[in-house]
Structures are given as structure tokens and as C-alpha cells.
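Summary for the funding panel

The consortium committed to producing paired sequence-structure records for every protein in the target list. Below we show the first two records in order, beginning with the earlier of the two.
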Amino acid sequence: MLPGVYQAKKKDNTIYFRSSITYSGKHISLGSFDTEEKAHEAYLYAGRLLAGKEITLTSYKKENPVLSFSKWVSLINFRDNGIYIKTCLLYTSDAADD
């Protein structure tokens, strides 16, 4: 198995791959993926994101990552502020008007 990846099974015995990384003593799940390679790609990308400040919130679309935007925000917040929020709440302008 590639680093950062482990195999799991759904209730119907379908195999999928989970990815995770440890940063500053915190175990962080990166998500579920159809292939071992995609899960490993998420692990490698999260490592690059956490290692340096050259990847920012504004570079999300340019980078075309395998990580969801909410995971991206959570990881950058943890990297820059030391606070990890498991589920990032995102608000749109429509939600703010309600």
C-alpha cells in the first residue's frame, strides 16, 4: 500500500481507499477515493500544502487539487493558525441574505 493510504470495504464489500496524514501530532483524514493512486495523490498534495505557505486559499482553482475546498480551507487554517476544524462551514452570499 502506498504511504498515507489504507484499504477499506463498504457494507457491500466494495473496496475503496482512505487517505490520511499526520501533522503537528494531529491525525487528519483526507477522504475516500476510488483508487489507491488518487488517495496517495491526496496524501502527497496535503503534505505539500502543509509544508509551505506558497499554496494559499487563492491558489485553489489554479492548483486543481484532489482535495475538496473545505478540506483545503481546514488544512490551511491548521497550518497557519494551529486550529483544526474537522468540518469547514462555508457560506455563500445567498445564505447570508436569508
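The next record, for a separate protein in the list, is shown here:
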Amino acid sequence: IDMLYKKYEIKCIVQYVPLYRTSLFKAFGCAKADCPHSDAFFDHMISFPWWSDMPKEVLDYMTGSIKSAVAALR
């Protein structure tokens, strides 16, 4: 996410955070949970700024940038 923003100016976010990982739930002692699927999803997800009428040039730039970023991580 950091590389996509700093190098390619693509602002990605994480939209889903398991409640038991938030500071509020931790403060109430609810930080322990056995939710392997939620953990796996959260640890590996990213949300890209797609929209329905995205111009082809923007789509091409985003897909090319994402491919380059993934390749750089390998």
C-alpha cells in the first residue's frame, strides 16, 4: 500500500478490520478470537480505487503500476 501511494500515487486502503483487532475491543479485553479466515482475509487484502466509468488510460496505468509493484516485491 505504501509503495503504491509513494511511487505510483495510487491510494489504496484496508476496508475491513476484524473487530477483535481494534483498540476499543482490546481495551474491553475482547482481543482474543479464533477466526482464521478473518485473519487471513485481513492480512492479505487491499482495496483499490476502482470506479464504474474509469477511463481506459487510468485503468491501464493502475493495472500496470500494480503489476510493477508486485514484481518489485518478489
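Regarding this second record: The two ends are 15 Å apart (CA to CA). The chain is about 55% helix and 0% strand.
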